[in-house]
From TrEMBL:
CARD domain boundaries: 38-96
TM region(s), chain numbering: 120-138
Naturally occurring in which organism (per UniProt): Atrichornis clamosus
BP GO annotations: regulation of apoptotic process
Entry protein name: Caspase recruitment domain-containing protein 19
Subunit structure: Associates with BCL10 by CARD-CARD interaction.
Length: 179
């Protein structure tokens, strides 16, 4: 949406119920006149700062003038409004439309399942460590006679446990069974 369309949409909001006071309008006009790129000439700035005209008329004329000049001029008005009246800038109807999410759009922040800040490798390392300790405790427990069952499980698990790890576990189980 272009800045001209946004300004046209926000015009009623800005001009109604004296949302902008005279000081803020003067600051905006001065910024549009003095800051690069110069949007308003000196004559135009004096016209929009004329205290003889009503505030509503000056603001309406300024907004119409900026819309005739083009999108860049309207963009600079929004920048000046943001600098001089942040609260009003955030309350603009066009800003609220931009902030409102599309109800059909998927919110990726809510859809992501994050285990922790360290990432999946840390999770896998912790899980492997826990599984290894559980297996070690299960096999080394002197009260249970599960060495034969453990040997069968480890013997048929070349895919689950790497070959080298399986060989080390088998040697350990053989040592335990001899003692």
């Amino acid at each position: 949406q272009s800045y001209c369309h946004r300004l046209q949409h926000d015009m009623y909001f800005l001009t109604s119920t004296s949302r902008l006071n005279e000081q803020v309008i003067d600051k905006i006009v001065l910024q549009l006149n003095r800051v690069y790129p110069q949007i308003l000439t000196n004559e135009e700035a004096e016209k929009f700062r004329n205290p003889k005209a009503s505030l509503h008329t000056r603001l309406s004329d300024l907004l119409k003038h900026l819309q005739k000049k083009g999108d860049r001029h309207c963009q600079e008005f929004y920048r000046a409004l943001q600098i001089n009246s942040e609260q009003l800038f955030n309350d603009l109807p066009s800003r609220k439309i931009l902030k409102t999410p599309d109800p059909t759009e998927i919110d990726t922040d809510k859809e992501q399942c994050m285990l922790n800040d360290r990432g999946p490798v840390f999770f896998l390392a912790c899980f492997s460590m826990a599984a290894g300790l559980a297996l070690f405790w299960y096999c080394c427990n002197s009260e249970t006679k599960v060495i034969g069952r453990a040997r069968r499980i480890l013997g048929f698990s070349p895919i689950i446990i790497g070959r080298h790890v399986r060989n080390i576990c088998m040697l350990y189980l053989e040592d335990i069974s001899r003692n």
